[in-house]
Amino acid sequence: MEATASLFLQIAVLVLLGGAIILKNRKKYRQHGITMASAAGLHLVTVVAVMGPSFSVFFNWPGTIVLEATVILTLIHGAFGSIAVALGIWLVASWRFKTDLKNCFARKKVMRPTFVLWVVTILLGVIMYVIFWTSLLLS
Predict the structure, then answer these.
(1) How many alpha carbons lie under 13 Å from residue 2 in its C-beta half-sphere?
(2) CB 103 within 8 A of CB 94
(3) How many domains does the chain have?
(4) How far apart are CA 113 and CA 91, in angstroms?
(5) Percentages helix, strand, coil for the chain, rounded to the nearest 5?
(6) What is the pLDDT of residues 25-63, one digit of tens each?
(7) Distance between CA atoms of residues 24 and 43, nearest Å
(8) CA of 86: how far to CAs of 22, 43, 82, 83, in Å?
(9) 117 versus 139: which is more confidently predicted?
(10) What is the predicted pLDDT for the residue at 134?
(11) Which position among 5, 16, 55, 132 has the lowest Cβ density within 10 Å, counted as fewest Cβ atoms?
């Protein structure tokens, strides 16, 4: 149940990211920033409430890890996701809803890679969801 809720919330995050890009292209930079802050906040809630706990349970610490495809996919998803959420929070926190966008434009070089990493992470999460939940349904 939590995984499905998390999936839908991450799809909402993806929609927010797309909307934020549209706002940026229309030069509505403040609305772009507010939308990105909303996406980062929603994403952080799902990471803390669902993904973090399921990540630790998935590996059954302490124990040995068998490096199979699903474990490697999970590790990559976790690493990319951690970097993306850290960068997203840093970008939002450094902006702090200021009306002066000078400092914001200075961080533009970090924004695009963060966005790409965020989207890749969400897509990896969707793949993981399909793999894990279809395998549960088939068993």
Answers:
(1) 11
(2) yes
(3) 1
(4) 12
(5) 85, 0, 15
(6) 998 988 988 898 899 888 888 888 877 767 666 656 555
(7) 20
(8) 23, 11, 6, 5
(9) 117
(10) 77
(11) 5
Residues in the chain: 139
Q: Are 121 and 80 in contact (CB under 8 A)?
A: yes
Say what angle helices 69-95 and 52-59 make with each other, to 10 degrees: 150
Q: If DSSP codes are grouped into helix, strand and coil, which group holds residue 97?
A: coil
For residue 46 the two structure tokens come to: 């799902």
Phi, psi for residue 54 in degrees, rounded to 5: -70, -30
Convert the pLDDT of each residue in 72-95 to its tens digit.
888 898 899 889 989 988 888 887
Q: How far apart are CA 1 and CA 107, in angstroms?
A: 38
Q: How many CB atoms lie within 10 A of CB 123?
A: 13
